[in-house]
Amino acid sequence: MSISNTVAPHIPFLRRFARALAGTQARGDSYVVATLETILAEPGCLDAELNPKVALYKLFLREWCSVPANSHVDFAIVGDEASAVRNLAAISVKPRIAFLLYAVESFTPKEVAQTLECSEQEALELIDRSGVEISAPKSARAY
Length: 143
Prior knowledge:
Butyryl-CoA Dehydrogenase, subunit A, domain 3, 8 helices
């Protein structure tokens, strides 16, 4: 199967994930484009040992994490989705990524671990931490 046939079905979901992670569709799409450009430039960059969706998200997160500004929360909170964005912004970055993979993208804890390159136990701890952070009083949240 060609790379485009392998990746294409997952792009709409990756765009949704990227939007939730980046805070806007435009910012999220810029990282999706960068990920797709990486695939075009380096066809072997997707981890062949992983499920194609997991490999795609892992590559996307490599692109995302390569930008130091993405290591902290910085959402502009406006419009109809302000409440949802505010709730996501309450979660520090790595637990937020784990939460989005698990709760929004329906990744299993094992797939979250593969995507984040950590143990399954660490992935579960990140998912749990996201719940604690989102429910913590605003003054106690770690950004």
